[in-house]
Amino acid sequence: MMAVVGDTINIVKHLKSGDPAPEINPSKYTLFAYRFCPFCDRVRLTLNHHKIEHDLVLIALADKPDWFKQMSPSGKVPMLLNEGAKLIESDLIMRFVDELRGTDAQLLGVCGMDKFNEALALTSKYYKPAHTILFKESYNSEDETTFRSACGELDKQIKGKYFAGDQLSLADFALFPVLDRLEVIMNQLTKHTAPDHVTE
């Protein structure tokens, strides 16, 4: 288990089958995640922005520990655990965390629910072809066309400094992690080799 404060992360390894379950502090939030998952990054950004102290447990998705399968039958990450209560789905966790510091600190209030949902919909269009281009041995012209179309739609929607205007909002945290992979994806499309640290 790794303590996380702000953007400082001490990553040891992804826990896999055969690894013992970590000791869980019931009085602290625990985030189960995968290092290269943009949906997990969404939640981490929200936790870090609101300075919510939490523990991070990384899970090897291709070889999940049995104790994690028992804890989460769906096997999904991110999963946020606190005092035995479990929350899955990145958008739901983001909204939950966004409420922890009170109404005045909420980022959802900046963009509103409609813009937040719009950002989620755009990332869904963007993510599938992006994932195929990054991690599959081969991709076709349809994948590239779909990806470029999603990029074009996203570009049209961003009209200010941030997605919803001139202020940072929860919609931006929904978008940032997928956009962060853009340079690597474009390298793939132009036949360059992806960096060694980018692995599924």
UniProtKB/TrEMBL annotation:
PANTHER family (alphabetical): GLUTATHIONE S-TRANSFERASE OMEGA, PTHR43968
A Pfam family annotated for this UniProt entry: GST_C_2
InterPro entries the UniProt entry points to: GLR_AS, Glutathione-S-Trfase_C_sf, Glutathione_S-Trfase, Glutathione_S-Trfase_N, GST_Omega/HSP26, Thioredoxin-like_sf
Residue ranges of domain GST N-terminal in the record: 27-105
MF GO annotations: glutathione transferase activity
Top-rank taxon, per record: Eukaryota
Similarity-based family: Belongs to the GST superfamily. Omega family.
Protein name: Glutathione dehydrogenase
Cleaved signal peptide residues: none
Cellular component GO terms held in the UniProt record: cytoplasm
